[in-house]
Structure prediction request, 636 residues.
Amino acid sequence: MSTFEKTLVGSRRYWLWIACLLLLALAGFLCYLRQLAQGLVITGLSRDVSWGLYVAQFTFFVGIAASAVTVVLPYYLHDCKQFVRVTILGELLAISAVTMAVLFILVDLGQPARILNILLHPQPQSVMFWDMIALSGYLLLNIVIATGALNAEHEHVSPSGWIRTLSIVSIPWAISIHTVTAFLYSGLPGRTYWLTAILAPRFLASAFSSGPALLILLCVVTRRLTAFDVGREAIHKLAVIVAYATAINLFFVLTEVFTAFYSEIPEHESSFEYLFVGAGGDYHLVPWMWISFLLSLIALTLLLVPRWRSDMRLLVIACFCVFFSIWLEKGLGLIIGGFVPSPLGAITRYTPTLPEWGIVCGIWAIGALMTTAFYRITFSIWEES
Amino acid sequence: MKITRKRFLQLSGLSLIALAARKIVRGAVNTATVESTKAIRWGMAIDLEKCRQKEGCNGCIKACHSAHNVPQFADRAHEVKWIWKQPFEDVFPFAQTQYTRDVNAGHPVLLMCNHCDDPPCIDVCPVDATWRTDDGVVTIDFHRCIGCRYCMAACPYGSRSFNWQDPRPAIPTLNPDFPTRTKGVVEKCNFCEERLAKRLAPVCVEACEEKALVFGDLEQPDSEIRKLLRSRFAVQRKPELGTGPSVYYLI
Prediction:
C-alpha cells in the first residue's frame, strides 16, 4: 500500500471528520472567491486598522510551526528517548502550521495574482523578504526531515545521518522564523505597541507554550480515537516545557506593562489601555484580553503544581487554557493593538466579518486536514512496525 | 579538447561569478552617478494661519482629489485620501499644554504624505513598488503593488490609503490624464510628480487662493521655501522618529 493510500483507509468516524473539514474548507474557499471578486472590503479592515485577523492568525501559526523545536531540540541534542515518536508528530504539525501561515498571508493580499513579484523584485531591506526565505526554508526542512524519518521507520532502519544533520539545522531555523516574524512588527517607527525589543523573545515564549500545548492535546485526542499512544512520559515532559514557557511568556508581558505604565509615556500606555480597559468608547476587546490573561494564570497554576500537571484531565484543561489564551493574545489582540490608536490618535473599532471568519475557518480546516492525513500515515507506519 | 564533467562545472561556475561581478560593478557605477545628480529635494511649507483664514475651505483637497481620480467613499473605514484636514491636537498632540491649547485647538491642519528623507514605508515594501525619486518624491507603482499593506503599517503618519474595493465607480468626474487604480493597491499623495515633470507646481499649491502652501526645492538656499523656513518658526510631524519629513508647518 502506498503512503497516500493509507490516508484513504479509515472508520466511518474518520470519514465523517474528513467530510466536515472538506466542507469547511469549501465554505472558506467560497468566501475567498467573494473576496477576490469584491476586494478586501468584505472584511472588517479599515484605513486605520489595515491588518487584522489574517495577519494575526499568520503570526500565531508561525509560532505553532516554530514550536516543533521544543520536541526536536530535546530529542536530537539531548537524546531524550521518550520524544522519539512525538518528535515526528511535532515536525508534521510544523508542516501544516507553516502552510497555514503562508495561506493567511496569501488571503491578506490585495493583489494575490502578483505574489510572484516578491521573487521577481526581491527586496533584502524588507523584513518580509527574509520572512519568506525563513518560512519556505523551514517548510522544506520539515518536509524532508519528516519524510526521511518516516521512510526510515517504514523500512525498519534507523534514519540516515543527514536527517540528523538537517534536524539540528532546523533548530536555529525554527527560532529564526519566529524572530523574523517579530521583526516584521518591532521595527516599525510609528507603532509603539510593537516597537519593543522584547517582541521577538515574547513571540518565542508564547510559541513554546501554545505549540506543545496543542501537541499534547493532539496526542491525547489521538490516543482516545486510535490505539496509538506516544507514551505518558513524553506527554509529561512536554507539560514541563509548556509550564516553563507559559511562565516566561507571562513574565515578558508583565515587563512590558511595567515599562509602559511606570514610565507613563502616553504613547506606550495607549494601546495597552485600549486593549485592557478600553478607550474612546470602544470596549469590545476588553473582556477578551482579560479572559486571555486569566486563562494564562489558570493554566500556569495548574501546570506549576506537579501533582496537578501529572493528572491527565487537569493537564488537558491547562493546555486548552494556554492555547486559547495565546490565540486571543497573539491571534487577535497583538495586531489590533498595533493599529489602535492610529498615528493620528483615532480609535477605530475592528470586528472581523462573517466571510472573514469563513476564510479563517477554511484555512484552519485545511491545516486540520493536512495534520489528519500526516498523522494517519504515521500511525499506519507505526502499526506495521 | 575533450571537456570533462568537472571542467564543464568549473567553467560554468566561473562564468556565473563573472556575470555576477559585472552586475555588481555596474550597480556600483550606477549608484555613483545617481549620487552626483541628486540636486533637487522637493518640499512644502504650510502656513497654518493663512490656511485657516477662510473657514471650511477645501479648495486644495478638491483640486487634488479630482486631478488624481481619488474615489469618494462615504464610509470612513474605506476612504481613500491624498490630502485632508485633521484637528491640530490630533496632529501635534504634545505641542500644546492644557493652558495654551486654546490657541490652536480645533483648528484644522492640512495633512498629506511627508515625502520623508528616510521613508520607513519604502524599506518595508517587499516588491520595490514604492520608492523615492531622485528629487525626493515618494512614489508608488500601482501595477507592481501586491496589496500587502506593510507600508501602511510602517508609515507613522497614516498617509497611505488602500483600495478596499474597486475605486472606479466612486470617481465623481474622471480625469483622463491621470491613471485610475484597481482594487487591492495602496495609494497616496505623489507631490504631483506628473506636474513637476512639466515644471508645474502641485495642484494643491495652485488651488490655494490664500497662498498658504509654498512649494519648492529644499536644496536651493535661495528658494522661497528656504527663505520662509529661515524666517518663520516651522515644525515637522514627529521629527523624533528620524524620518525627515519634507512637509513643514509654519506656526
